[in-house]
Amino acid sequence: MKRKLLLLGGIFSFLLLSLSSLAQNTQLDLNFDDGQPRFVAINANSGDPSFTLSVTGGILKIAVNKKVNDWSFLQLWNPNLNMASLPSLQFLVKSDVATTMYVRFKSAKLSNPAEDTQIELAHALTPGDFTYYYYDLSSLIAGNSDFNPGLVKEIQIDISNGWTNSTSGNVWLDYFRVGYAQQVPSSGNGFMQRFNSGMPSGLASTADHTLNISGQALQVNVNRNQRWVGFDYDLGASYNISSKPYLNMKVKADQDMVMQAFLIDADGKGYQVSLVGGQYNYNELVGSGSEYRRARVFKSAGFNDVCFDFTGATIIDLTRIAKIKVIANGTALTFNGRYFIDDLALGDSARRFANVGQIPDYHFYAGNQAQLTILVPEVANADHLELSSSTLLSNIQIDPVTYEARVENGKPATYGYSRIRFNLNGTTGSEQLTLTAVGKTGFENNEVRFNVIVSGNMPPTINPVDSMVVKTGKEYSVKLTGITDGDRDIEQNVVLRAYADNSAVTGNLQTVYTSGYRSGWLKFTPQSAGTAHITVYAVDSENDSTGVAFKVMAYASLNNPPAVADIASFSVLNNAGQQVLKLHGISDGDNNTQTLTITAVSSNPAVIPDPVIVYNQGDSTAELRFTPVAGQHGKVTITLTLADNGGTAENDGDKTTVKTFEIESLVPPVTEYEIDLNDPNILSRFSPEQNGVIYFLAVVDTLGEKALRITFKNKWTYGGIWLQLPMELDLSGMPVVSYEVFSKDKSTWHWNYLYDALGTDGNINRNIQNSSQHQYEVTANAWKTLSFDYRHPGDLNNSEGNPIEIRRINALLINLHDAKPSWPFTNASGVVYYRKIRFGTKASYEPLVPDVTIDPVAPQNVYAGSGQHTLTLTGISDGKGNHGNVTIAAASSNTTLMPNPSVSSADTTGKATLTFVAGNAGTVTVTLNVSAQGSN
To answer: What is the pTM of this model?
Structure first.
């Protein structure tokens, strides 16, 4: 037996020596020209293979037939690859099915070589012809500190629609290379994209930028939380623009912004950022590694031609431009906005022209005789400006362009501006003017168009007034609203004038108004019964006016409407049986001289039938009785009507008062719940932010039992996952959520928010006040139970300090990140697993030990030698509402000045008496020790 062990040891040592003597590969080139697939299909079911490989014409064909819960993959074993110096992957691929191709690189762990770890690249496949792709794997390697790029022991390929979905189709692969520089084919001297044929290849949405085609233009929606982040346009080839290093775009934006355009060559040079900062990291542009030009873009409805001139570029190779990067407001930490790009041209397809910023439309009042100006912004490389002829403007003068030189991010920048000065000739109308920036030598002209609208006097405005029923001899004040001079471009004085067609009814009319305000008053005291019509005019300085008329019906006496106090909406369980609601403040409005009829009608009798009213004439209260229908639920509007019978032709007739309120009939509460991960439809309950882009969810059992696998890629700090519960939970008895988390290969942070069923407003309907106290870290590669216990003061409050409706919880917003949430926000990638997601009494939690209570005691001042004193202590309890079981002891810091005080037992109201004796002069600190069995 010993001899066999020695022999095995000798063989093993020899193999180790042999492997270490082999030269390591720094590159891997699989072109399949030898007819060998090189990869081996590891099929979960040999009788019905998930992957079938064949090679034809030097191209690997992968026939895919994956089942649900199918772990099959393709394997390249022991490539003996060191990709530390150039961690890159490139390949040509085509597919006849929309799915995802996962490429995994496996190595031994740096921390424990006996175990393996991996990095994984997810590449979305869409039906189409062969397309070339290049990936820099540096960020994936940086995201797994245990991965060893110096010794890759296995490469796997998986093609799948997810663990819980089947996948079938064909994928063709060629030119699969690791460790090579990006190979970009040359493609001439010019490039043009008009965005007229859908989304071009080379453009794709990211976590920060959503791209789509709108009106044959590229629409860019930006929502970023880091500096110098933009979107890339991979041109798919390199272009020699050295003779014409120009980039043109037609741009329009929903807001003013600065656009930075970068050119990146085939070697990846032209854009470089570094993380800087102490506690909070942020991107800073590396000037020595970045080649960009900037232009200010102004809010406009039309496109503006912009030229980015890269003459003199030193960082990039202008003979091999392969990519364009566009950033909006790169110097800002955050940016949220939208802009459009059309007719993007590069090199020979572009022109070198002067720049001029978009001018907004201008409105003027024809009567304005002063000299007016229009600012012309963002002028560059223009010798002077010229304006087209105008039928509305006269004495037109254009200032010479003023240029100011600056340095931004280590690069020179020149800003130019001018002004158009003119008078109005008194003519009204609108016209489109063209402003031409006449280019300097070597620069073509550029144009912008804008509208000028000159209006005559616009009549004033005033809102209509409702008809009125009034009583003679009583003064009335009518608020008049919506008063303006009607002009947007000049301010005029406005006065109010009022007239009545029957002044014997209305009496004198008085208007109270100050010009410039949007409201005023009309005051009058009716003199006799009858009907009149009042007209109020708003009159401007040009004597133009607008009038509103309303009807006044005056009576010597009025039948007042009945009254009842407002009723707040409320909820009730649908199995609660008969309910009685007390109605208050009931009267006929006329000293209870009339008979009232009170009725109540339900908007949905199937949920709550029409209520019954119990009322005794003359009482100020009544009962509204109703019984919810068991098994039914929903909101019902109750319409309560009070009608009197004291109306005559002389007092405006009978009156009614109508009040409405809502009753919501609820399903009896559920106080505990656990997410069933065996439910085949459970993923429909989860709604991640940008599902399939940032988040990829699947239910797996690779870790011993069912778990929710969450793969996140470049998600921002607060990008979360909504969990919509199948029913409302009443967590008032135990407001706790718990779940177990496994964080793959790196630590992660976790926190969440409860949402009530009353809405989705993050300021009102979620418990956010103490959220920073419920953020927990999970270390890598071990299950950990997290318990979010919201039983402490303020835990259930929203951002306004009010508690959410904890009896009606219908959603949980789950958040996770690779760092504790803080500003500035960052993006992160990773994989975590969740299981045993539980709510209420089913959750994991520690017993809550209450704290004893006692109110603070103010400092006491007594005379030295004044003898015995007493002091009442209040707010004493064991934290659970009990008082008699609390023990209180008092200690003096200086017993020579004052002996230790005595304290009585607390009474049933939580009060006790402290007795002390004042001795010599001095300051004494009294310490109260409050304790109770079972309390802190």
So the answer is: 0.50
